[in-house]
Amino acid sequence: MFDTRDEILEALNMPIEEFRADVLAPAGSVPLPGGGITGMAMLGYSNICRSQCLYCGMRAGNKAIPRYRMGPAEALALTGIGRELGFGRLFLISGEDRGYSFEDIISLVSGARAQGYTRIDLACGEFSLEQYKMLRDAGCTRYVMKFEMSDREDFDRLNPSTSFDRRMAAIEAVIESGMELGSGNIVDYPGHNIEKMAGDIDLMRRLRISWAPVVPYMPAANTPLALEGGRGSLELILREIAILRLMLPDVDITAGQPGEDMKKGFGDEQGNLNAVAAGANVLFADLLPAGRAQDFNVVDNRNLPGLGHMRRISELSNRPLILE
Ligand code: SF4
Fold first, then answer.
1. How high is the mean pLDDT of the chain?
2. HEC profile for 11-40?
3. Of 117, 139, 161, 309, which sees the most CB atoms within 10 A?
4. Which bin fits 198, alpha (ψ -120 to 50), beta or left (φ > 0)?
5. pLDDT reading at 302 higher than 90
6. Ligand 1 atom closest to Cα of 94?
7. End-to-end distance of the chain based on CA atoms, in angstroms?
8. What secondary structure letter does DSSP report for 232?
9. pLDDT score, position 265
């Protein structure tokens, strides 16, 4: 099922009732990877970024947010709290902060491994193949390098600090390094359409991703793209999740999805439950202290509630919560 872009496009164009019966319901019945909802601890260790992605609140041109950079010691104190809470999986993320030395990134990854994390995901930008191999050797399990948009023209317009070719070369280097790849798109950004979305989903299949960190477009204040349109369609993100689950039954798919109330961000209970019912499985708990969480603002109202919220989604969806 969904071996080609045309088959994906056909599903995206189905009348909603037909889609619910033929795609959404079967996708919700596929056993989730790991046997339940995967809870991961997440730490945004630096919100400094040299890039100017038109959709992102952390773009270098946004002078309205306070910037911070946590060295390995400060970051590891917080990841240690995640271990104490019982998390075995960690997602470390930062902007493209070239003031953060590569040696410090290695120390952070190996330090988190020493704390007992069994899986570490890392997203901190484009590096060379040799550097990806060093990250792999330090204990990084999966590198997250989103392609954001498979349409070359859109990518080059919305990501002026890099290029489509550079991004795809970086993704190929991650694959060649032997780390797993997390990659995906933004759904329904201004200028996106169903045909492009079919191409996005097909690209995830061809890249053999192990995590689809997909979200609908969510506007961020002080960004150029926020002037062009509002939040992406909640129906389309659910369609994408369901197609992905049937197409790639073993991959992680982000369940921290927004709902109707944009103020609740990725922690919207109904948004999360709808995503799980469509086949998504990964929720995140933010390790940033309350005073800093709002500064890691790739989108407005990012909001990642903690373990209590994960337990509630697990209970309401009748799926076990897996932390290790
Ligand atoms: S998407 Fe990433 S690289 Fe682009 S501006 Fe935001 S933090 Fe920087």
1. 96
2. HHHCCHHHHHHHHHHHHHHCCCHHHCEEEE
3. 117
4. alpha
5. no
6. 7
7. 31
8. P
9. 84
CATH annotation of 5-322: 3.20.20.70
Stated length of the chain: 324
Whole-number Å distance, alpha carbon 90 to ligand 1 midpoint, is 20
Report the separation in Å between the CA atom of 317 and the middle of ligand 1, taken as the mean of its atom positions.
33
Burial of 9 (0-12, 13-18, 19+ CB in 10 A): middle
How is the chain split into domains, by residue range?
Answer: 5-322
Give me the pLDDT at residue 121, please. Answer: 98
Q: Which atom of ligand 1 is nearest to the CA of 95?
A: 7
Kindly give the distance from the C-alpha atom of residue 297 to the centroid of ligand 1, in angstroms, as a whole number: 10
pLDDT score of 215 more than 90: yes
Question: 0.85 cut: is pTM over it?
Answer: yes
Question: What spacing in Å lies between the alpha carbon of 52 and ligand 1's midpoint?
Answer: 7
Q: Are 321 and 311 in contact (CB under 8 A)?
A: yes
* Cβ atoms of residues 67 and 57 within 8 Å: no
70-121 pLDDT, tens per residue?
A: 999 999 999 999 999 999 999 999 999 999 999 999 999 999 999 999 999 9
Residues enclosing ligand 1, CB less than 6 A? 49, 51, 53, 56, 58-59, 95-96, 298
Alpha helices in 86-230 (DSSP H): 102-114, 129-138, 152-158, 164-177, 194-207
Q: Which of 45, 298, 302 to mutate to test the pocket of ligand 1 (most atoms within 8 A of CB)?
A: 298
Confidence at residue 294, expressed as pLDDT on a 0 to 100 scale? 85
What Å distances lie between residue 41 and 8, 19, 30, 49, 87, CA to CA? 32, 33, 25, 22, 6
Q: Which of 45, 48, 49, 92 to mutate to test the pocket of ligand 1 (most atoms within 8 A of CB)?
A: 49
